[in-house]
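Fold this sequence, please.
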Amino acid sequence: MLTQSALYGRKAGILVTLGLCTGLLVHTAAVSLGVAAIFQTSVLAFNILKIVGALYLLYLAFQAFRASATKLDEGGKQKLAWRKLYTRGIIMNITNPKVAIFFLAFLPQFANPSLGSMTIQMLMFGALFIVATLLVFGAVAWFAGFLGEWLKGSEKAQIIMNRIAGTVFTGLALRLAISEL
């Protein structure tokens, strides 16, 4: 999200953030319905999701390494389809099994059966986490846009940012690939 904001502007970072938060809806629902427990107990399910996530990150890295400096439009930002950015955020979040495991470990700690439906409580905690994520990541995306504006005048800076993005995606893919349950 930080890299997308710096490369493509604030709107791009906000769209990736919205995608990430949409992915959190999936994780919240999964934990609330008990599905995430499968990833905690099934090594095979965890590894499949982990491999899919790592492959997607490597795909993004490959695209970033291939990208060259491009002419920026009059508004100062490259055009990238908003759906592509939003979808990128969703896929990055949903294919990260660590998020599912985190939600499974984190949310139940705050639920109290004596206060009513556990499912409703989990959904509420998930919604709170999404709001916090939206605020924090949205702020980071907004301020990273300033970095992009500062770098946008230089083709060399664009290429360097693309290489940094590729390196970050590769590092995240490797970290995800070697992670254990």
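The mean pLDDT is 82. The CA atoms of residues 30 and 36 lie 5 Å apart.
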